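Self-study notes.
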Amino acid sequence: MMAAAPLFTRLQRLFRLAAAPAWAGSTIVGLGLAAAVLEGAGLFLFIPLIQSLGASAPQSGRWQPIFDRVLSPIPEHLLTAFLVAVLCASILLKNAVHLVNIWVTRYIDGLVAHRLRARVFDQTISSCVDYRVENKRSDIITTIANNTWKVSQGLSLAYRLMICSCTFVVFVMLMLLISVRLTFFSMVFLLFGAMAIRLATRRADETGKAVVEENKQFGLRMWESINALQLIRAFAQEDYERGRFLQTSDRVRRRLLKLDMLWAAPGPVSEISITVLIGALVLVAQSASIGIAALAAFLSLLYRLQGPTRELLQSKIALDGLAGSIDDVDDFLRTTERPFLSQGHLPAPALEEAVEFRNVSFRYAPGQPLALQDVSFNIPTGKTTAIVGESGAGKSTLMALLFRFMDPSSGEVLADGVPLPEFDLRSWRKRLSLMSQEVHLFNDTIAANIAYGDLDAGMAEIRNAAEIAKADGFIRLLPDGYETRIGDQGMRLSGGQRQRVALARTILRNPDILLLDEATNALDVETEQAFQLALDEYAHNRTVVVIAHRLSTVQAADQIIMMAKGRVIEAGSPDELFRRQGHFSRLHEFQHGRAAIGGS
């Protein structure tokens, strides 16, 4: 009837991934079984009820002694009323149990989806895997917002499979009590019907996986179009993008239509089969001299059996259709779980002496060339260290290792002589703060964006940080001051204003080490000078690490680390490097000469 081995494997994977509470499965299936028993018992009562109304009893069946023993204490004139009352009570109780089962199932459904979303989100923001490279961001949104729900739906379908199987067994046992011959005839007929449905819907698994891929493409198209609105309008490509969007959306529509039709197929096929079967059974029962009461009860059980049978087949097909979503969530969690950084136990103390890179080498993936090779230098406290070099020299990789976004492939990074992996990760990162050319601001108020540096800070502290960052002046001129909402990525602010809000956030955090990654690269000269003035005032006697291409921005540094192709090629103060007439001096002369030509 079903491909048992693949189904069992898929259910194992689903239960492991969903991780529902231990009591969930037994409770849901137990309530479903109780509802099936109550419904079956109610239908079985049709036999004595119809007999009490005057139907003649046929040949004695297996069920007759049971009724005689249970109903003998009831006076004959009250028997019909008693059976009607019991029948109503069984139906009432069955529906009450069914409603409780629905509530428990929906509760578990929502709980599983919530936990999965939280787990996917947590591993997305915590894993050291660069998911921006290995996965499209739109794929991750699809996994969190869509496919986690599909996993919880899959779990509900798995429970329905169990409940329908139990219901099927209960009804078949009751039918066997009435007539073995009719039951055997019915099961053979249903088996052939199930095989026909399975044959017609065998592509549900493949179609479900195709739907997942089409949804990802649809998500990517929406994400890229919204993020590139200015580019689309600037190049007048609205018609082209509209065409691409409609094409992708239509592919999703057609795939979903096909999947919906596969899911719907068992319903009408099952109902038609049952109707034909009932007609055939009436003829068989007539030739077998089965009484009207027994036949009515048997047909009632059989007719009610079509619901669980249809659900059994539909749940299996729907589970096949959700296989792609389940695999997507499972694969993402497995991929992002593997490279989690080891967690130390020591609280990171205030930095007193230096951060040391000792023989550090790093590669991003096996088989790729080294991004850093045998790098060694110190970052002394209270000083400004500049790391300079052309693109691809390894500067940003050093910053990532300092933050422990990644760990070295070999060598160590130490703070006051203690390897970074021995520190609690969060406590170490709280000692640092980063400002880069690409400022990240939330679609929230200015006050909320500054307070991100310290969520416990009060309004007075937020304003003080903004004053130091030379941001308080322009903030007060905004319509709602500090409560002004600044749009996605702070789009309602200028580049210089965004940088100063980010600097205020950093100042509020009050880090031991401030990292500046090309923080002024995109600013005009006047804005850069204003920003640099605020920064110099704040950074005095603090530990600062500056990453830069332009050497004019690092001449005031206490120490310069010159890098090329993942190696340190020069290190020393600016005066020392000028006197050596090496790489730094030649690069400075080249940039200075190019700037002079550009200004003439």
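Second protein, same conventions, sequence then structure:
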Amino acid sequence: MHKEFLMGNEAIALGAIAAGVNLVTGYPGTPSSEVLETVAKRRPEDTYVEWSVNEKAAMEVAAGAAYSGARVMVTMKQVGLNVASDPLMSLEYIGVKGGMVVLVADDPGPISSQTEQDTRHFAAFSKLPCFDPSSAQEAYEMVQEAFAFSEQYGTPVFLRPTTRVCHGYASVTVKDAEEYTVHKPEGFEKDSSRWVIFPRLSFANHKKIEERNEKLADVFSGYERNQILPPCEENSGLKKGIAAGGISYTYAMEAMKATGMAKTLKVATPFPFPEALAVEFLQGLDEVLCLEELDPVIEKELVYVCGKYHLSTKIMGKLTHDVKNAGENSRDSVAETITAFLSDLGNDESCSEGETNTGASEQETSASSRTAEPPALPVRPPVLCAGCPHRASFYAVKQAMKGKKSVFCGDIGCYTLGNAMPLDMVDTCLCMGAGVTIGQGITKIEPDTTCFGFVGDSTFFASAITGVVNAVYNQANMVLVVLDNSTTAMTGHQPHPGTGRTMMGEIVSKINIEAVLRGIGLTTVETVNPLELDKAVSTVQRVAAESGVKAIIFKSPCIAVVKPSGALHVDPSRCIGCQKCIRQLGCPAVTLQDGMVRIDEGLCTGCTLCSQVCPVNAIVGGDNHE
């Protein structure tokens, strides 16, 4: 064993490697992406890794390997689980032979997501066991235990870390390579009575699943990570308790260094819920405060247990409005809530050595009261990077469609940021690939509207192709705009089928988006560099005037994957102060200082878009400009 300073996602990856994982698939999505990437960097030679085209494909590839007895892991974020849910719901009825861990990273806040989904609900919905780590160290150990549980009970299992577990860093004790489990898959054995899903098989297996989960509830009551922690000596007579799970448990432990340790239930497996352990915890308690992200899952389970066993304990949390019911918890918010809950303790002494401290000293309290509140952090909305080709693409479409009735249907990714002023080019945004089909719906109701469906190159492969097929088949009238920047930019520049390489580092044939579109049936497909502004505008005008389904591919690489050109600057002798470059583009490199337009050479990439917009040619420089 040795220690490494690891991100939580790295710890999960190393835990999977230590467990002998044979195959890892997934689709990038913050906060989960680093798990698969770490496996790819540190995997043994016989471990296969891939970024699949979407989460559904990832789930199905992993299922096939698990049928063959391999240990597999699938990675995604919470909204990706929606895409993977179709195979997953059926897979639970079929079961697996090799251990299968479905890592779904939830994003309370949400910090970088469309929704605040809670995967613990999905665990109950799909009847899959769920493991909820509270720290990087626990995540490392828990993923290994999850593989063992999965194989023992023949079922996929969820590992559900949240953002602060995924992206927090800690010193983690990990195994040396010689301590790793070596798992040899047995291979696929044909058995249609097991692997082919039919209603009769589903009915029979449903009963087995319910019986298994009842058994697991008892097993999890004895699982070492589900714990009842006693109060410190000074609080031994206290009839209040804390129930917590995930990162909220870690925050609660921190908070009770100041309040004194109350009797605490740590829930590491929210489904099946450790009912017997909960009954033991509730004995003798008048009130229990539940701390969790996001939804009142633990709280509802404890209310149910109280009713089932005729316990009079009052359960408090989100349902009683004692804890906020949206957004992520923080150490400060948990500390404030616990302090209010335990406010009648009146403890002045510390717990004994080795336990938790009941209160700050007078000196600490005095110093704390003298500390001024820090100023509020400035609001920094996300914006397109300086030199981002998407800015040029949106601007070209905006210029081309001036004065015409148009709707711009956006998508999930960097291009969502096209909604910001002054571009204001995202009228709708629902989920990945939906812009293509939402535009079809609008034009069926408003045929005089020109609808544009924007999508990125990675998202095109992930979830937009079916929408384009639907458009062609159902004779829609719309413009598909593919913003091809040759990477999956927002989640960390992962490869995809259009980049020509895989996560294993193999060089493969690029899948050509234009060829795919023509194969689907589009006859008008134009590819143009959006940074050639006049050509881009005229292309949009020409293509939009045609009927039927047509496509424009704006192709220009992300500024993070190419070497920038020389920075531009403003010639003050030519500048007339019209500020058109600022008012129409919103590039963070172009600013106003002392009433004069300036270009920050540290941010400018030399894309030349601003120089093409300037009416008096006052923006000069760069590699190919005067």
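Instructor comment on the second fold: The longest strand covers residues 450-456.
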